[in-house]
Task: structure prediction
Amino acid sequence: METESEPYVRLATLRQLHQVMADMNTARSLADTLQTVADGVVTGLGYELACVNLVRPDGDLVVAAFSGNAAAEALITGRVGSRTSWDRRLTMGEAWGTLRFIPHTEGWVLDEDDVPQWYTDGPAPRFEDEWHPADRLFAPMWATGRSGGELIGVLSVDRPRNGRLPGAWGREALQMYAFQAAIAISNARLRANMQRALVRLEREQQALRASEESFRQAFEYAPSGMAIAEMGGDQHGRILRTNDALCRLLGRPASAMRRYSFSDLVHPEDIGTLLRTSAEGGRAELRLGRRDGSYVWVSLRNSVVADAADGPRFLLTHVEDIEERKGRELQLAHRASHDALTGLPNSAELRTRLSARLCRRPQTTPAGTAESMDAAYSGPGLIAYEGPAPGFGALGAHGDHPGLPVGGYDHHVHTVAPADDTDDGAKGLAVLFCDLDGFKSINDRFGHHTGDAVLIEVARRLTSGVRDGDTVARLGGDEFVVLADGLGRADAQDLAVRLRNAIIPPIRVDGRAVRVGASFGIGWAHCGMSAEEVLKSADQRMYIEKRSRAKQHRRAG
Result:
């Protein structure tokens, strides 16, 4: 740029400067913008050399662009100067507005610092405003246009073409240019950051789409059942989505499944298990209802999944068909607790059911005062436990059995036997001990095949002769026990007579009719007794009854 006084700036010069700034603000990338800034100093402001020193994230400045000398560009581009050295340069010398000029007479102190530089030596100035090769002129690029704001970088310029120090117009033009360059670089950085963010977002979206597709395929084509259900709120557990495997397992179409929650499908006895699993996550084994009304055993495993960092949470439910395994387990459990020949509960199961009704507390009060005793022992705030229904299908443990406090007094209605000498209407738990008469001779004469058939038929007749809630068990050999709750002494006697009469009729085995009789002893279970003591009492009464009848009359009953 030629030396011109402010009123006589040529229009061509303004056009040239305008074009330089336009190019600077329309560059396609940050690197292009930096190079355009350096080139603009040379082409628009009349300097032979220009260098753009850009502030890095760590605060130091790197030579990001150079213009005017290829050798100098190759030598110092990419080199870094410390922020400490730059701060020293920007605080010494002469302040020309926002510019900083360090004459050759002072610049020698900077020769050994780490700021990359390119200059040549030369003779002393011949006149006052002549430019010396060792002079330095810096134009800081502040984000706010003035010192004190964020420093974006520094423009280093050298060797004006006219050989003179810039005048008022030249200084103001360089300040304006540095201000516009700061804006252009900031905008270019913003665009670069936005482009990187867009690229990163696109990659994340692609990864998310790939992840969603992988999840969809894993969900839809999983060999076992999968479902997504709502978590929390009024719609907790409502099914939102199911895969084909679950629909096939339950025999229900996907459109119908969305009308249900798992609580609608689970077996009533398993609803507590489902609620605990849904609330806590985890795994449970329960029964789900099929469309045909049947139930299938499944292993249900819940995982809590968040839709976003603070978004709604869902239950991802994995449903595995375990009907076959559960059937084997139930079969093994049944075999362990039931007699293999007759299918009746065995001795161990009988003792378990009987023990479930008894606690350690001795019976020291008369019959008919059980309620007052419970009230005295339970105290205020305790809940009376009514115990299992007749037949002892609901098993528990009391007293010296695992699962309850020692003593078993709380939450338990004590079993009390009716009085021996009066018929006061009290009801108790009757234990009928049955021993077959004449069975050994059948085994000896006709063999075990016939004896087994007799035992099976006797078991059937005993089962048919009791109430649905009563228990008929086989102790072993030809001994059976009946547990019947809620009977008075007369009721128990009547039951024994009916069962004996049911056993007496002939039993046909392989075209042959055989007959057995039965002796019954009636014992009464009450708290304070063990299961063994109850069975022994009934056994002793049975032998008393057997001995009281003549041998020739036993089989006839």
Notes: Residues 142 and 151 are 5 Å apart (CA to CA). Residues 6-121+128-192 form a domain with the Beta-Lactamase fold (CATH 3.30.450.40). The chain has a mean pLDDT of 82. The longest strand covers residues 295-306.
